[in-house]
Amino acid sequence: VQLQASGGGLVQAGGSLRLSCAASISSSMINRMSWYRQAPGKQRELVATISSTGTTNYGNSVKGRVTISRDKEKNTVDLQMNSVEPEDTAVYYCNVESRWYGNIWGQGTQVTVSS
Description:
mainly beta
């Protein structure tokens, strides 16, 4: 099982960025898809999560600036980030909870926000 993340890079503060993650398993095998992030010297934290029914939850630090969406046909989960801040600089990880394969992590994609 693989998760392939893309879309990271360098963005100026106030700008927007869209991350995408493609899973190599069917959406029918996935309970929840999420994005986490880890900044240098900090613990990994939840950014956003979306359930199989479409219920979403967001981390307090990104509420109102981030939208998570899921495409069940393409087995992908996207993270739209708006009004980014230097504090959003981190490695972003895609995560999948599967009833068949357990908890799966992607390789991470770097997001750097310049002030």
